[in-house]
Amino acid sequence: MFYDHQQIEKKWQKYWEENQTYKTSNNTDKPKFYVLDMFPYPSGAGLHVGHPLGYIASDIYARYKRHQGFNVLHPVGYDSFGLPAEQYAIQTGQHPAITTEQNINRYEEQLRKIGFSFDWSREVRTSDASYYKWTQWIFIQLYHSWYNKNTDKAEAIDSLIHHFEEKGTEGLNANQNDELNFTAEEWKNASEIDKENILLNYRLAYRAETTVNWCPALGTVLANDEVKDGKSERGGFPVFQKKMMQWSMRISAYSERLLQGLNTLDWPQPLKDSQEYWIGKSQGAQVQFKVEGHDETVEVFTTRPDTIFGATFMVLAPENPLVETITTDAQKVEVDTYIEETSKKTERDRMSDVKNVSGAFTGSYAINPFSNEKMPIYISDYVLMGYGTGAVMAVPAHDERDHRFAKKFNLEIKKVVETEEDVQEKSFDSKDSVCVNSDFLDGLHYNEAKAKMISEIETKGIGHGTTNYRQRDAIFSRQRYWGEPVPIYYKDGMPYTLPTSALPLELPEVEKYLPTEDGDPPLGNAKEFAWDEANQKVVATDLIDDKTIFPLELSTMPGWAGSSWYFLRYMDPNDEETFVKKELADYWGQVDLYIGGSEHATGHLLYSRFWNMFLKDRGYISHDEPFQKLINQGMILGMSAFVYRIDGTNQYVSKNLAKDYQTQQIHVDVSLLKGTSDELDTEAFKAWRPDYADAEFILEDGKYITDREVEKMSKSKYNVVNPDDICEEYGADGLRLYEMFLGPLEQSKPWNTQGLSGVYGFLKKFWNLYFNGDVFEVSDEEPTKAEYKVLHTLIKKVVYDIENFSFNTSVSSFMIAVNELQKIKCNKRNILEPLAVIISPYAPHICEELWSLLGHGTSIEFERFPALNEDYLVEDEIEYPVSVNGKMKFKISLSAQLSAKEVEDLVISNEKMQQILEGKTPKKIIVVPHRIVNIVI
After folding, report:
1. What is the rounded CA–CA span in Å between residue 905 and residue 903?
2. Which of 211, 736, 858, 897 lies 20 to 30 Å from 37, alpha-carbon distance?
């Protein structure tokens, strides 16, 4: 019977939509299972075949869990704020909302074509005001919270104010920007502005001067992961380090919890390692060094206080405020020039550039508090203001980077850890030795020396032992238009939150999407964007009088804001009273399976863990971690095509002749190849772009053969394959099966459209099991043991594969089972019905159609997954090969229940064996149960 995949797939996609087959109920006594894909950003290019890989895997798992009787939440939505739509708006004037809507419609059309079992009724979009109302609400909760180190959680700011009223800062143990000291009396007498200023020092969302990655061409601050080699990832524009007043999130308060929480998660180890490295916990000492001729001291954090006697110079971050104070007139030009150069590098570039050494001498000296020797003070870009104190004591004999710095600037290198190595030539970084040249530390091992030195530092009153974290607070404002407005207005220069009743604070219309002439963010172009405090509403900007009508914050939230809590909104997407009802958050709990790319390791996955912990602290949800199990899917790589242009001409030479010419390799669109071959359609190539219109070709055997290479699939490499084309030719079920068949989910693998014909052939074979010619024919006759064995072997394999995410080996098992059933001409209902259920998570359309033809009026989706019966896998008979002196002589079928001795007796008494023996007695008989019999004569 002809397998018409197009008609079948359209029919069932329409059925699922009309019947809301995958709509999930919150009211159920079923156990829950929450399967989620990482939030897609709807780009203008739409999906290519690499994008659905993770979605197909999660969809198979979601469908399998429904078959097991779980209430499955498998939602979809869009992370729809983003820079590309804004850049397009700047270029064309088209509002980003229009671009985003068009992109989402295209995405949805493509996703529906592939047959995903999403609950579309729960769709969320971060750029919808009904959604970002709650993003703004969470920001307000963060603003009105502080982190109490005694209780180790976030608490309402009111409890901090109460503490100040009762005791001032006495006994306070809080995460803060600066350590403040005041009495209850001083707090009570402070002005409202002073009180607000003090509270900003503790709030979890706060405003402070921060060094940021400023991109003038884009007019915005960029996150570290949006900058590459000193340029913006989008557009390649120069990026500079600049100090600005910015909103920040106090994620640093959660560093230890974020670190410890990793132990409870079933995540890939490399991803955990990335977060652990990013958080960067280290234990050591904070030490103060006096600066000669100045009142100021330089405070450093060191993980190796045991090496302090070997500290021969100091290095400050170029941004350290002390630099301006201590730089001498003679060194000012050199220092200023160096600071200007450093501002062009991002922190990430500075951290990763370990080979190059640069710096400038300030002209000042610090005094080593233990050796009393003078230490020249330098600045260098390898020291970061945000890590530790923005200053390091350099011990060149025992730190590779300090050693390179000392060699470059000809500074003293002093050995303080015993080693045979010549520390003048190479640093010795090991802790496995004893201290030397270190006065009272001499002869002590690392741990003893470290503890003793910390004790001495504390006795001298110049510092203390401490734990430090590399992770800094996250910058939370962007100078962009297309993002969530920050619900803040300014009164007497101080920030105040809007009342929650005024939310959402909607994005205003603007005439242009660039910063204003005064350098304000694009929201500065809005005519209706001021806060009327008396009437609690947004009014015209020209009414601002700073008495009752005040300016609103002009920055917007970063791209990660909306994606830091979307997994909670899916639980209760249409609630207008709260971001998620507590009882629904308690029912759905953690995401049980989260699938997405590893590139989000230190961005989205850290921020969402932080917000989740905060919301738990404040009692809105009950679970600590958002994502219990996480899988990073690999990439599907493209098969790029290249032509060879002869240098200085418009002639193109075929692949195997190119070696005879000086050529340039040029990417061409894979759609210009003929069918699934490597042959270029030369006429299509000439029509592709104007500069190729008069192309000439040097052919081999009358054909132009392109070169092929496996690369990342991307528009710029012209190797993108559109899933719509694959669905058209091979069907969505073919696409789903092929993407899983390509290899293990976590690995990267190359796409090859030619490979689809094998999977499509399998689907046709599977379809025809249910037909006799063109007639649907399924027998109600009881299956044989052999038929049941094929089915239950498959059940066992597929259950194991799905639960271990080995989807590729399941597809192989389907092919083996269908081939075996075809061979024995099986058409029994008791085999073919469960077979359709087993294959349906992978190929839902064909299985729905077969299920319907089998006489069922409801969807296959909620049928119980067939139960394994091991009895069918027990062999009745074993065919033993009988080997004599190492050569196989004959085979004998014997009962599987026989003991080794019984098998031996039956083989020896067998007529064929008697002929071989010719009356001799065997020297040795070896029976391998259920496998083979070996006889030595």
Report:
1. 6
2. 858
